[in-house]
Structure formats: structure tokens, C-alpha cells
Amino acid sequence: MKILVVDDIRNHVLDAVYARTPEEGLQKIISEPWDEVWLDYDMGGVKTNLMIVKKLEELAQVNSILLPIGRFVLHTSNPVGREIMRSYLESYYKVVYAIVVGR
Fold first, then answer.
1. Which of 75, 79, 80, 77 lies closest to 96, judged by CA?
2. What is the pTM of this model?
3. What strands lie across the sheet with 17-19, from one edge to the other?
4. What are phi and psi for residue 19, nearest 5 degrees?
5. The pLDDT of residue 10
């Protein structure tokens, strides 16, 4: 199973590829198929992964491009950020939540 985790600080007990910035995450998402993409919301300072989900929505809505992603796992401890990301993704991709313990 191919898993990508886009998170600035967490390390999960997953055999996964990690991206530590939204820009790196978007590049990896676009570059190859993924069974799961795990997204945190807050990415340090003022950065968030909102730019990723907005770009994916734009690709789907404007260009009719759906990337080969099995599902998105939102693992943020920010409930508002989680709902914002869900609202962008759920019309095009399967979205689930993971429980976050600590930061």
C-alpha cells in the first residue's frame, strides 16, 4: 500500500513517504498514484495544506482531472481546518478522519 503523509512534524507508525511542506506534498501527490494521502492542516507558521486541497479541487472542477488517490485521511487536531479540507475534497475523493493524539 502506497501512503503519503503531508505533515510538518508528526511521524506516524506507517510505512509511508513523508512530505514536510505543502509544496513538497502537492508535488508528490501529482507525481504518482497513492492508496492514501494523509493530510494535516497546520503546517507551521502561517502555512496550511489548504493550498493542496484548493489545487486538487481546481484540477477536478476546471480541468476534469481526478488524480489516482484511493482516499484522503485527514489527521489534523484542528477541527475547523479539518472541515475546510473535507469540504474541498469530498465531492471528488473519498475522505476519512483519523484520531489525533497529541501534537
1. 75
2. 0.91
3. 17-19, 3-6, 34-39, 69-74, 95-97
4. -120, 130
5. 80
